[in-house]
């Protein structure tokens, strides 16, 4: 039995704790915030039965790691999979775009060769498994060549520009696009009560098993203790462990463990990522009368955000005391001005656009607003990314690292946080049993 520290009580950290504690180890999770769930956490207003995720969240029907974990926990009956409506913008109007038929009917590409190229490229990407061949190219060069300039500029370029910004969009590799098309489904899943309810139930189960979850306990330094071979986890106090797993961003990892060899630190520091800015509105009335859930918005059409998501066209407003919940969100570089503007300043920019979704919208529809920002929201996979991913087992014996930035070729998400957290737990346990065998032989 080993004493193991996990830094971060997001889904990665909690999933690792689930496997390690069940295997008989003594696990302590250190969490800086006063809640569990990390980026997938949510909040509740008085009168709401369900929480709302700070950053819009749902699962895909293909999220087997998350759905498998929920099954192990015995909570499958709490997973809901509605089929909400997603729409695409074209010349001032929105068109449903969440099935092959709808894509065929989408007027943006006309009904000639461009539609055929769009369909063939989509089919190829759904069928191929050879993402390694694709990661050698950028989305920009591959799509221009195979889908053609018109199809790319109309259908795919707005997506990569929106997600990775002007600075990075031409550098993102084609395996990222492959993974999106391969793994995504039109049925979208959530947990009864919201993701925060799931995170709280999961933390509750871990505590029952003996996992210590220390909230409001930020870790500031991790280093090997001279002599003892143990690892000191330091914050306001210091405690030593045999193994430590860090589930934070690469940048945070490089600050927490400055004694890592320069080459590994350099690898961490060269990982690129985008931040996210999300405004949430509670409205008195439904915004999209057509019942649309997800609006994909091209920046070129003058919207100040990438997506408008009406949560209560997916989950019933009855769970929120009749409030209608709308997200306005974007992925932005952490230096973007939206990280410095006040909530009022951002509302001044965002609210006038709501009449483009419903001409009846009035400012007095707004009950309350919330603003959430994070500098680490979406890793940017560059060409040949697989060669640059930092190893989970760091060069310092006993210190492990499992983050969103190592999730690949799949796009990050709670499903892959579960996968990488459990993979790291497996590596820790493998290392411990090898050590035991060596000691027995000696
Ligand atoms: C805008 C947006 C939309 C998303 N949409 C979806 C979606 O629809 N579906 C989906 O599945 N996923 C989605 N994701 C991704 C998903 O949230 C992440 O992949 C997942 O939550 C990552 O989990 P994690 O455990 O790796 O990291 P995190 O959730 O980031 O957990 C890390 C934890 O470490 C804590 N921490 C930080 N510093 C310290 C410190 N010094 N000491 C101790 N603790 C510390 C943090 O407070 C945090 O709780 C979205 C993310 C964003 C930003």
- Radius of gyration equals 23 Å
Tell me the strand order in the biggest sheet. Answer: 8-7-16-17-18-15-19
Tally of alpha and pi helices: 13
Averaged pLDDT, please? 94
Approximately how much helix is present in the residues?
A: 25-40%
Structural class, by secondary structure, is alpha/beta
Task: Please summarize the sheet with the most strands.
Answer: 7 strands, mixed
What distance separates the N and C termini?
A: 19 Å
Strand fraction band?
A: 15-25%
Shape: globular
Bound molecules: flavin-adenine dinucleotide
Total DSSP E strands: 20
Low-confidence stretches: none
What does this structure look like?
- With 442 residues, the protein is of the alpha/beta class.
- The chain has 13 helices and 20 strands.
- The strands form five sheets. It has a seven-stranded mixed sheet.
- Strand 11 (221-224) and strand 12 (231-234) form a beta hairpin.
- Helix 1 runs parallel beside helix 9, helix 1 (11-22) packs parallel to helix 13 (414-441) and helix 6 (139-146) crosses helix 8 (174-183).
- The chain is globular and about 75 Å long.
- The chain starts with a strand and ends with a helix.
- The mean pLDDT is 94.
- Residues 7-13, 30-33, 38-40, 55-59, 218-219, 247-248, 252, 276, 278, 329, 374, 377, 403-404, 412-415, 417 line the site of flavin-adenine dinucleotide.
């Amino acid at each position: 039995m080993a004493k193991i520290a996990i830094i971060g009580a997001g889904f990665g950290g909690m999933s690792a704790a689930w496997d390690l504690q069940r295997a008989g180890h003594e696990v302590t999770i250190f969490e800086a915030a006063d809640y569990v769930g990390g980026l997938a956490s949510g909040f509740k207003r008085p009168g709401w039965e369900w929480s709302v995720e700070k950053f819009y969240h749902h699962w895909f029907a293909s999220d087997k790691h998350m759905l498998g974990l929920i099954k192990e926990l015995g909570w499958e009956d709490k997973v809901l999979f509605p089929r909400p409506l997603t729409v695409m913008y074209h010349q001032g109007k929105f068109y449903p775009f969440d099935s092959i038929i709808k894509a065929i009917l989408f007027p943006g590409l006309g009904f000639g060769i461009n539609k055929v190229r769009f369909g063939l490229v989509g089919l190829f990407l759904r069928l191929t498994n050879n993402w390694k061949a694709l990661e050698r190219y950028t989305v920009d060069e591959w799509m221009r060549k195979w889908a053609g300039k018109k199809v790319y500029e109309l259908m795919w370029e707005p997506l990569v520009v929106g997600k990775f910004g002007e600075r990075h969009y031409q550098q993102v590799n084609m395996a990222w696009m492959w993974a999106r098309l391969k793994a995504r489904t039109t049925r979208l899943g959530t947990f009864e009560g919201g993701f925060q309810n799931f995170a709280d139930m999961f933390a509750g189960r871990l505590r029952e098993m003996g996992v210590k979850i220390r909230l409001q306990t930020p870790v500031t330094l991790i280093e090997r203790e001279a002599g003892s071979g143990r690892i000191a986890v330091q914050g306001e106090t210091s405690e030593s462990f045999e193994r430590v797993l860090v589930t934070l961003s690469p940048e945070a990892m490089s600050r927490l463990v400055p004694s890592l060899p320069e080459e590994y630190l350099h690898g961490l520091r060269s990982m690129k990522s985008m931040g996210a800015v999300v405004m949430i509105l509670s409205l008195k009335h439904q915004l999209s009368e057509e019942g649309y859930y997800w609006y994909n918005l091209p920046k070129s059409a003058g919207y100040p955000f990438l997506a408008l998501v009406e949560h209560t066209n997916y989950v019933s407003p009855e769970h929120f005391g009749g409030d209608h919940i709308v997200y306005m969100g974007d992925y932005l570089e952490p230096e973007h001005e939206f990280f410095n503007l006040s909530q009022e300043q951002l509302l001044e920019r965002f609210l006038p656009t709501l009449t483009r979704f419903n001409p009846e919208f009035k400012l007095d529809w707004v009950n309350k607003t919330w603003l959430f920002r994070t500098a680490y929201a979406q890793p940017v996979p560059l060409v040949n990314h697989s060669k640059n991913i930092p190893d989970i087992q760091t060069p310092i014996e006993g210190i492990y690292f499992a983050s969103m930035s190592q999730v690949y070729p799949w796009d990050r998400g709670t499903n892959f946080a579960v996968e990488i957290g459990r993979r790291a737990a497996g590596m820790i346990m493998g290392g411990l049993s090898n050590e035991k065998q060596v000691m027995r032989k000696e």
